[in-house]
Amino acid sequence: xxxxxxxxxxxxxxLRSAQSADWxxxxxLVAEIARMSTDVTLRQAAEQALPVLRQxxxxxxxxxxxxxxxxxxxxxxxIHDLTAPRFGRRNAMPKKLSSEDRARKVLGLPxxxxxxxxxxxxxxxxxxxxxxxxxxxxxxxxIDLAAARDILIHPGAHKDA
Length: 161
Known about the structure:
By secondary structure, the protein is mainly alpha-helical. Helices cover 67% and strands 0% of the residues. Residues 102-161 form the J domain.
């Protein structure tokens, strides 16, 4: 797929930089892109460019030629975005939370702060008021809350899950 994108990019660059544009050739190329591209944005850009490119064939109107050039530029910009190298960890999965960090989230406690037993119990009592089965909460949520409190009070007794 990347090779096809590169060849389309080169062909569009050549057409765009030509002294007199061959709008029929540009139309054929953009129609191929619209038909064969797997990327939704690229396909949409190509489909939107087609009517303008077809109108530019055998048309001496300068404004139509400018519009066709702009449409070619939009398609080319989308191809550039798709072929640009990606740096960093954009598509990396988020780091898994430890069981202690998950317990802190359940209780609504900050992740990187030293906690006392009293802090943990206060957070537990505050959260338990709304999650208790007698007050409209679910039994499973209440059990999870109690387990989170136990993990934080006795951190060495539980292994990471």
